[in-house]
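ok posting inputs for the S-adenosylmethionine job
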Amino acid sequence: MDTQTHWEKIYTEKAPNAVSWYRPHLETSLALIEKAAAGISASVIDVGGGESTLVDDLLAHGYESITVLDISQTAIDANKKRLGKASQRVHWLAADITKVELEPSVYDVWHDRAVFHFLTSPADRLAYVHQVTRAMKPGGNVIVSTFGPEGPTKCSGLEVVRYDAESLHQEFGMRFRLLDSCKELHHTPFGTVQQFLYCLCRIE
Ligand SMILES: C[S@@+](CC[C@H](N)C(=O)[O-])C[C@H]1O[C@@H](n2cnc3c(N)ncnc32)[C@H](O)[C@@H]1O
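and the output
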């Protein structure tokens, strides 16, 4: 099954709160975005946003330039339905982050929770880093969250790569300056606990 079909199947079959990565709110992501953004006019992209309520929280905080990208059209449609009229204030992109042609130098803040770790092939990781480097404004901030060293080896039936701050930073290279990192124990809706890592880097 290809990547897109996999995720369409997940979002067609499962309720938003019936997936292991569900949280009512992505508090750590929001706090890091608040730290990374110069203000509410910052242009923010949530890569692989899924059906998370981060976009709702960004809108509630007044962010004026929000893009949500996901490979699943079903997830994007569910967000639009949940948000109603407010969804018109968001730019939606149904695309594969390793393949899409993003506008160059447009984003101030890049956020990804639990997407990069699915890229098990070096070529896909390289394509992802190329996208970040191209789409971000110089001096922009990049927040990437993956499973940590003690996190699960699989998610949603797919293999993942686990990272610590150093190995994740290495994937992005020296143009990215590591500003902050933290770990979080995520309690899944099924009562299990998963270690997540969050890194905040600035593109020099
Ligand atoms: C584990 S979920 C995380 C969703 C959300 N970020 C969160 O934390 O609730 C991974 C998400 O990445 C999306 N995804 C997976 N591979 C992708 C790709 N190559 N390009 C864009 N989105 C992708 C999936 O559709 C899914 O919504």
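notes: The CA atoms of residues 51 and 200 lie 22 Å apart. The longest helix spans residues 122-135.
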